[in-house]
Amino acid sequence: MSTVEPQVRRFSKGDTLRVLNAQLLNPDDTPVDLTSQSVKFNMTNVVTGVRKITSGSVSIVDILAGKVQYNWQAADVNEAAEYRGQFVRIQGTATEHFPVKEHILVIVFHDTV
């Protein structure tokens, strides 16, 4: 049985200028068409299981290519830890989580200064 490595994104504690970009893909690796849909972002602490972000607002950058962007808020990156992140596509009352085969590992490092 093979394991799928998570997508790893690294940020420094307190950094809000960099964004979290992603492309939502169907199981056949084609882009998800986000026409008439919305997307949210969730992030949970790997160690404690505490949800850090619930239904965070996501900008759709390219509707037909499934490209999205989450802009960090100060409270999102105020403590160093490892988190599991996931985008949620919403169409009416139906939802789908991305990535499907793995999760996004978000690592927030302590300041180095």
What does this structure look like?
- The protein is an all-beta fold.
- It has a single domain, classed as Immunoglobulin-like.
- Helix content is 0%, strand content 50%.
- The protein contains no helices and nine strands.
- The chain has strands at 7-12, 19-23, 38-45, 51-57, 59-62, 67-71, 81-91, 94-98, 104-109.
- Strands 1, 3, 4, 7, 8 and 9 form a six-stranded mixed β-sheet that branches. Strands 2-6-5 form a three-stranded antiparallel β-sheet, with no helix packed on it.
- A hairpin with a 4-residue loop joins strand 5 (59-62) and strand 6.
- The chain is globular and about 40 Å long.
- The mean pLDDT is 90.
Quantity of strands, as a count: 9
* Main beta sheet: 6 strands, mixed
Whole-number average pLDDT? 90
Kindly state the percentage of residues in helix. under 10%
Overall tally of structural domains: 1
The count of helical stretches stands at 0
Shape: globular
Q: Per DSSP, what share of the residues sits in E-state strands of 2 or more residues?
A: over 45%
List the helices and strands in order: EEEEEEEEE
**What is the level-2 CATH architecture name?**
Sandwich
State the end-to-end distance.
43 Å
